[in-house]
Structure formats: C-alpha cells, structure tokens
Amino acid sequence: MSAATGHALGLRGLTRRYGSFVAVDDVSLEVGQGEFLTLLGPSGSGKTTILMAVAGFVAPSEGAVLLDGQDITPLPPEKRNFGMVFQGYALFPHMTVAENVAFPLRVRGMSRAERDEKVRGALDLVQLAAFAGRLPKQLSGGQQQRVALARALVFDPNLLLLDEPLSALDKKLRAELQEELKALHRRIGRTFINVTHDQEEALSLSDRIAILNHGKLVQAGAPGALYDRPRTRFVADFLGKSNFLEGVVRQPHPGGFMLEAGAAQLVVALPDGEPPPAAGARSLLSLRPEKITVLAEGEAAENIVEGRIVSWAYLGAGFSLRIETAGLGEIRANLPTWRSAFAPAEGLPVRLGWRAEAAVPVAEDVA
Amino acid sequence: MDGTYRPGPFGRSLAWVTALYLVLPILIVIPVALTDQRYLSLPQDGISFRHFETVLTSPEWLGSIWQSFTIAVAATVLSVSAGTLCAIGCWRISRRATELVRVLMLLPLIIPSIVYAIGLYRYFGPLGLLDRFAGVVIAHGVTGIPYVVITVSTALASFDPRLEQAARGMGASLSQTLRWVILPRIAPGIFSGAIFAFIHSWDELVMVLFIASRDVFTLPRRIWDGINENLDPAMAAVAVLLILFTLALLMADRALRRRSEG
C-alpha cells in the first residue's frame, strides 16, 4: 500500500429529500487529503445519509459530491473505488477471512498470485494473518471489525468510509480499536470519513468533526476547537456536558462583556477578534462542569457564585456535584478526586469559581 | 429443550394419537405391498416380494416411472429458474406492486387444481400441447413456481441487504454480486424449493388426467388407472417405492438445511 495518497472530497449543497422529509439539508463540506473527518450527530441527523451519498448508495436530490474537484455524483457505487466498513461489518458469511479480503480484487479480475500477496499484506496490516482460513462467525467482534477494515483497504481505495465501525463492540474493546484505527490512519495516510453518534469516539479519533442536527451542518472544526468554543447550544450540549447561563449583556468592550444573570454579574472574556454582543441583548453562556472549581476559604476567582450541594456522585476519577446557587439556578460541577481536601456532603455550602474565558456565548438553536 | 416444563400425560398421549392418525394410512400400504395374494389384501400365508418384482420388471411400470421422472426434472428446472428470478426481483425492487406479484405467484397453490386443469385443457388444445411431454412439463413447472417463490423469499428475508451494498461498494457488478454473494447465500432455499417442485410434479394426477391421455402416461396416472381397472397389489408396491423415494428427498433437504445452519 503506497503511503500518503489521500484524496480530497467536497460536498456542495448536498440535499436529500424523502417525500416532504429533508434528511440532508444543503450540506457543504470540504475534506482535505489524508484527513480523518467524523460526521457526528444524534440518530436521524442525516450523517449516515451523507455517507451513503458519498458511497453512491443514495442519490442526492440536489447538490454534488466531488473527488479532487471532479463531480462524481452520477457514478454508481461500484465505479467510485471507495472502501467502506459497514455497521455490523457486512462480511460475507460463506467466505473465509482470506476470501472476504480477496473479494474486491477478484471483482477486478486480478490474478490469483497477485491477489494472494495483497491479501497477505492487508491481513498483516490488521494483524490477522493467522486467521486467514477461518469463517467470519469463528471470529470475535473485534477481529471481524479488523477483517472488514482489511477488506475495505486491500484494493487501494480513494477514500475509506466508516459507518459506525465500533458501535457493536464493548467499551474496552472500542477504546483499543479506536487507537488502532488512529494508528492505521496515520500509517497509510488515506482520507477517512467516519460516521458515529459517540462523541468520545469522535473527539479521540478525528482531525476534524462535522456536527449535524436535523440534516443540517451545525459546526465543523478540530475536536478541541469544537469542545472549547461551541457556537450553538446544541453543539455545547451534544459534545460533552454543559451548564447554560442566560442573562443580559452589560458593558460590552473589545475582549469581553459583563453578563447580568439573575442576581449575579458574570465576567466573560472573548478570544481575540470576536466582537462582543450589543449592550442590553440577551445572551446564553455555555459553561463546562469541569471548568468550575470549588473555592477554598478566602480563595479568589474572576467569577464567584455561592450555593449549596443538592446531590453528589463519586465517579472514580472525579466527583460530580449538583449545586443549587443563589440566583443562577442549578449548576453541575465536576471536580477531580485528587483534591482530597474537599469532601462533598448534601447541603454543604460551597463557593464556586471560574475564569472569565471559561464560559462561552452560544446561539440558541433555531428549532 | 432442557429446563422447560414437560407436557402432561394427557397432552402427550393426544400428540401421539394425532401423529399415529396421520401416519397410519401411509403405513398400511407396506403390509399390503408384501401380500402373497393376487388381489389387494393383507398377507395371508406369508410375505412375498413378487409384486415388487412385477413392478420392477414390467415395461409399463418402468416406462411410467421414467416418464414421471423426466417430466419432474424438466418441470423442476422450469419452476426453479422462474421462481428464483421472481423472488430475487421482488426482493430487490420491494415496492407495493411486488407484493401483488408475489401473491399472484402463489395463485396456483390457492386455486383448486381441477379448475386449473380445465383451463389448461381449453388452451393447450389449439396449441397442440395436449398429451405432449412439453405440455405436462409446462403445466407442472408453472404450478411448481409457488414452492420456489416461497422458499427463496424466505431465504432472502434473512439475507442482509448490506452484503449486497458491500459487494457493490467494492466494485462488483450486478451479475458478480448475484453469482458470488446472493446465490451462494440463498442456495439452501433454492434447493428446498427444487425438492418441493419435484415432488409436486412427481405425484400430480388431476392435471395429467385432463391434458394427457396415451403418449404421456405418468406414474400417478398408471396407479389411478390400475385402481380403477383391477385391484393389482403391484400398486401397493409402487406406493411403497414412492414413499421411500419421497422420504429420501425430504431427508436430503433436511441434511442440507442442517449443514447450512451448522
């Protein structure tokens, strides 16, 4: 397999309607050469339909799919040369592992000797050379998944499409295969497009994530950028957990503003170049639970809110607290357990603090 | 299954009685076939294989067996090709209209065969298909289609459509997908359908009575005539041979299913 021969994919105004239902609504997206892009969204968000349109199994109602700038929309799936790992893997149950992996080569009329060599290479790549003679049902879920990967890669596809590739596996195995998948992507340098509803998988695997909701592209970007600077309430809520604080904007200035929320005055800092909202406008802030700390006696912070612990849970690596605050309603905070000085208890009065840049203004979703 | 509650004595005996009731009429021909008398009866002074000998040496009986066999094979080929293509077509298109097609295909099973036979007689006459090998093959082949449509549709219902997508996504053409992915997966269903279509033709009498007379004289027809004309115990011997042959076919079907499931 030759390295670093990724292809670029473009979606231009992709739309797919089923009767009056719009499954995919005017999605435009660029996927760079060798990039690992994840389409993330809840079920029914249109992510699988987009993948199926890229693969050629679903014809778009409008818009185009471009490969390296060339329109491939009218091509049937068998002419696109894309590798695909299906949900549930779709291995041929009547063929051995080696025959499954050889299938795309056999279809292309490749000679037996050449085929055998390629199959061996592909099975080595996923460390399954010893299982070549087995039937799929004699393999574990993780091994089947790797066979599906080998089969999708053996014919040097232009793109690798993955439809919820890890959803059928248990949590531990999933984490293992995530690492393998990531290493594989780095090693072969091809363009990967992955579909998932699992936000952790999306965050850990992808170079870039595109978040979809109701068929629309909501926000796309690097995992860190999406997590730290969500643009809408949906993104903040779907990718990780979030508190939402609503209030009125006061004293806007370059670099930040004050938010009057209930009885509290909150300091909000904005990254360079982001214009502040107008004074008097309503604004919604997203505040990640892990960006909140419980302040010690006499400790200071840019934002301080007092409250009482309503309930708490021990999660191993951290505590999860629900705190009823004076004026801001209920807030969730996550604290690392290594701060052993802190022992949560129901009804315990606490002072919560967070930095000015921790809270991010987000747009309310248009329903 | 282990660990389930067993049926009570009443339920169990009822089940056995029912099973016996179903099987006894079939079993009764066995002693009759072994009779030492010249007429249809139970053995009196001892058992004898002379009637089997009669059947297996008589040119009429052997001719009818051979004719029935060749007709059944040709009819099966017709049923299997048409039924399989129809089932795959309906499965791939799978719209409302295909449901209708599927129901239409089951019609020969629903309509009384005597009604069907009258219809065949009416339009086989002008076509010159009466009392012809081809005519009987067409009649049996067409009425055998439902069995194949049912078994192949059942096999396709458990066929994962993503396998077809996977094959096409990897560059396989429609015919390659059909040959290498779909057909191997539904082969047990096709084989079952073939066995049923074969048996259907092998023991079909009503249509043969209408559309064949002298040149085409199948085995069921010869048994029918034999019973009407004389009570030759050779018929019982033929019946036993038929039962054994049908049993062998059904065992083959079972064995094949078990292999494909195992």
TrEMBL record, chain A:
| Domain ABC transporter intervals | 9-239
Enumerate the SMART domains for this protein.
AAA (SM00382)
Taxonomic classification, please?
Bacteria, Pseudomonadati, Pseudomonadota, Alphaproteobacteria, Acetobacterales
Q: Which GO terms describe its molecular function?
A: ATP binding; ATP hydrolysis activity; transmembrane transporter activity
What is a single cellular component term in the Gene Ontology annotation? ATP-binding cassette (ABC) transporter complex
- Give the UniProt keywords, A-Z: ATP-binding, Nucleotide-binding, Transport
Q: Which Pfam families does the UniProt record give?
A: ABC_tran (PF00005), TOBE_2 (PF08402)
Q: What processes in GO biological process is this protein linked to?
A: putrescine transport
What is the protein name given in its UniProt record?
Polyamine-transporting ATPase
Species assigned in the record: Neoroseomonas lacus
TrEMBL record, chain B:
Pfam families recorded for this chain?
A: BPD_transp_1
Q: Which species is the source of this protein?
A: Neoroseomonas lacus
Q: Which GO terms describe its cellular component?
A: plasma membrane
Membrane-spanning parts: 14-34, 65-91, 103-124, 136-159, 180-199, 234-252
Database matches in CDD domains = TM_PBP2 (cd06261)
* The protein, known as: ABC transporter permease
**Looking at the record's lineage, which domain of life comes first?**
Bacteria
Q: Which residues form the ABC transmembrane type-1 domain?
A: 65-253
Question: Topologically, how does it sit relative to the membrane?
Answer: Multi-pass membrane protein
User: Which keywords does this Swiss-Prot/TrEMBL entry list?
Assistant: Cell inner membrane, Cell membrane, Membrane, Transmembrane, Transmembrane helix, Transport
